[in-house]
Write a structure and sequence with these properties.
Largest sheet: 9 strands, mixed
Radius of gyration: 19 Å
Helix content: 25-40%
Strand order of the largest sheet: 1-12-11-13-10-6-9-5-4
Structural class: alpha/beta
């Protein structure tokens, strides 16, 4: 979630709302789960259980738009479960789906993109989630979007046009989990981190955050609300978008530390490398929380297109649209870079993160077709 907002300037403004931030001083009593070892089936080493880790909440009334789904809705959707699901999706739907490694996290987890549609299409859009650790419902959402799209590839329609027709001209690239180390840490605690060096850095971040009053929580509870990567860098403040203007923690932290330089982290480097690898028609970044669409940034070189995408996504989701004025974010960089890309950030959820399972149905109902809507926009612009 971005730190600052300014007034909405697009055509379809909705009523202004109030953003709530994820607190660290009034922590919920959710149990911390300790992970064992695991091996990613696509080749990436993992540290969580291969099966999903079920958190509090009921799955009895979870919406399912896919018969015999592979991606199971659980409160703590783990890295290893994502890897297993990507492997199974590729096996079941291989003709319509490609899975590629795009980098490796600090703790040795492979970062993946899944490409839905024609990889040689003239246009491409990028959708990613899980750049902030405690926002781990977004990788689940992105994986469910991927499964929904590949299952309905040959039969689904959007506003009367077949999915297959749209996806022949626009490839959709999903990066479900940009920050697997941080997510594993938030979900499973310190045992999820294999590197002794990283463990020491995390413990030092806790000591510094305690000393500076950024937390008063016990260590295990502090980790539940971890936002940054495996060494305490906020990946969404690590991009070259007025990075020098970012003011936050001066040292690694659970929350906001921009790193030693722009793109200092392997995870942000992987996302930037993917952006540099081709020409993009649009990007969508999923975060939580607030039910907000951020679409603008000072110096935005693709303001009109970004605003248009925000308007149509707002119409689909019912989320209000606002501009953002924080710095160092992926969307911000995408909009001001040498080859700018129309981009939006979608903040899902209405309560403090980590989001409970009770938030899922509303998030899914509003967002299940965002990917095909943006693909349709790209195809016609």
């Amino acid at each position: 979630m971005r730190n600052k907002i300014y007034g909405f300037a697009a055509a379809m403004a909705l009523a202004a709302g109030t953003l709530a931030f994820c607190p660290l001083k009034a922590l919920a009593d959710t149990p911390v789960i300790t992970a064992g070892g695991g091996q990613g089936l696509l080749g990436g080493p993992g540290m969580g259980p291969v099966g999903p880790a079920q958190g509090p909440g009921s799955t009895e009334n979870i919406i399912s738009d896919v018969p015999d789904p592979i991606v199971t809705v659980v409160e703590k959707y783990s890295y290893d479960q994502m890897v297993q699901d990507l492997n199974t999706l590729r096996s079941r739907y291989g003709t319509h789906l490609q899975v590629n490694a795009i980098g490796t996290s600090l703790d040795g987890r492979t970062l993946y993109e899944a490409v839905l549609g024609n990889p040689n299409a003239p246009k491409h859009i990028l959708i990613h989630g899980g750049i902030h650790a405690r926002e781990y419902m977004t990788p689940l959402l992105v994986m469910k979007q991927l499964e929904y799209g590949v299952e309905l590839y040959d039969t689904g329609t959007f506003h009367g046009e077949p999915f297959s027709s749209i996806l022949s001209s626009v490839a959709v690239h999903f990066v479900p989990m940009v920050n697997p180390d941080g997510i594993s840490l938030s979900q499973f605690g310190l045992d999820a981190i294999r590197s002794q060096e990283l463990r020491q850095q995390i413990q030092q971040a806790y000591a510094d955050d305690l000393a500076q009053g950024r937390t008063s929580a016990a260590f295990d509870r502090y980790l539940v609300y971890w936002k940054t990567n495996g060494r305490g860098v906020d990946l969404n403040q690590n991009f070259p978008a007025n990075w020098d203007l970012v003011t936050a923690s001066p040292v690694p932290s659970y929350g906001t530390y921009k790193g030693t330089s722009p793109l200092s982290e392997p995870e942000s480097q992987a996302l930037a490398g993917l952006m540099d690898a081709r020409t993009w028609a649009a990007t969508v970044s999923y975060h939580s929380m607030g039910n907000i669409i951020y679409w603008d940034y000072p110096g935005n070189l693709v303001q009109q297109a970004s605003g248009e995408i925000a308007t149509v996504v707002s119409g689909l989701t019912g989320y209000q649209s606002l501009g953002s004025s924080g710095h160092g974010g992926f969307k911000d960089w995408a909009q001001i870079r040498e080859n700018p890309v129309p981009s939006i950030t979608i903040e899902v959820g209405s309560v403090s993160c980590p989001l409970p399972l009770s938030e899922y149905n509303d998030i899914w109902t509003r967002n299940k077709q965002v990917w095909i809507l943006v693909a349709k926009y790209a195809a016609t612009h």
